[in-house]
Each structure stands twice: as structure tokens, then as C-alpha cells.
Write a structure and sequence with these properties.
The chain has 170 residues and is an all-alpha fold. It has one domain (8-141). It contains 7 helices and no strands. The radius of gyration is 23 Å and the shape is globular. The termini are far apart. Mean pLDDT is 73; it is low at 41-46 and 153-170.
């Protein structure tokens, strides 16, 4: 007879739930970054091109997303405290130090820790940001392909239009 590891099942269910919550929160943060308008800029659309500049994930954003995920009331209602303690545990200062110094909040996130695995919440956030960057790149490529295939002669037609008028001879 097979023994069921109920603790592992509880951890797996909570990790899936946490990943869904993190996905929603991280998508909101990433969307804000993709459509951020610089102060004093009069252009409405100043999007980041993910081919050139991937959506940056710094420690400030990572901790903010982790805090929001940890504060989710539904997560606490659906899972026991010991399960959440294992998933949401944050590393001590020693695990985060590089050359004796803590990283700046604006520094890029590096989860390569030699002595301890990264918390599940951090891994979920990094995976979500990676997925969002990939999706944004795919959408950008699809949009540019659609724009170039739509009315192939349009650019030549528009370039020959007189200033202030249309290129139509009528």
C-alpha cells in the first residue's frame, strides 16, 4: 500500500496557490514598468522594448511583491501556518550578503545563494517576471510583423503624400 505524504501535498498546493497570487501581483508591477511615463515627458506611450531592456527586477520590487503576496488574506485562509512559514520564509541577512555587503534595494536580483535555496516566494516572482518579459517580447514581435504585413505599399504611399493632404489623386 502506498503511503501518502500529506505534508508534501499541502506544500505543493500552497506553492501553486502562491504562484497564482504572485503572478497577478507581478503582472501589475510589470505592466506599470512597461507603460511607465517619465516625469515631464509629454508622450503618452513610452514603452520599454523588452528585446533591448528586459523588465528589470530589483530587490525593492521583489520585496514589495513578496510582502503583498504574504498579506493575501485568502492565502492565509486556505493554508495552515506551518505551510506558509515554509513558503514565505525570508532569508537572513547573511544569505543575502555579497562580499560582506547587503545589496542595494535598486540592485538587480540575484538568487544564486551558495548555502541556502531561495524562498519559494522569491523563485515564483523571478519566474513570473521572466515569463512576462518573454510574453511581452512575443507580443511585440507579433505586433511588428502584423504592422509590416498590413498594406505593404502603405509606407511608399504615405511618403509621397503632399504635406497637409492625402496621396489620393482625386
Amino acid at each position: 500500500m502506498e503511503t501518502i505524504d500529506w505534508d508534501q501535498l499541502a506544500l505543493s498546493a500552497a506553492e501553486r496557490d502562491l504562484a497564482g497570487i504572485v503572478r497577478e501581483i507581478a503582472a501589475r508591477y510589470a505592466q506599470q514598468r512597461l507603460s511607465a511615463v517619465a516625469p515631464g515627458d509629454t508622450h503618452i506611450d513610452t514603452r520599454v522594448d523588452p528585446r533591448i531592456d528586459p523588465i528589470p527586477l530589483d530587490w525593492r520590487t521583489l520585496v514589495a511583491i513578496a510582502d503583498e503576496a504574504e498579506a493575501d488574506i485568502g492565502l492565509h485562509a486556505r493554508h495552515e501556518a506551518w505551510v506558509l512559514a515554509r513558503l514565505l520564509r525570508l532569508p537572513g541577512d547573511e544569505a543575502l550578503r555579497r562580499d560582506g555587503e547587503l545589496p542595494s534595494l535598486d540592485a538587480a536580483v540575484d538568487l544564486q545563494w551558495p548555502d541556502a535555496p531561495a524562498p519559494a516566494v522569491f523563485r515564483a516572482i523571478v519566474a513570473t517576471f521572466t515569463d512576462i518579459t518573454d510574453i511581452a517580447y512575443d507580443e511585440l514581435a507579433a505586433d511588428s510583423a502584423a504592422a509590416s504585413s498590413f498594406m505593404p505599399g502603405a509606407s511608399a504611399l504615405l511618403s509621397s503624400a503632399p504635406a497637409g493632404g492625402s496621396a489620393c489623386p482625386a
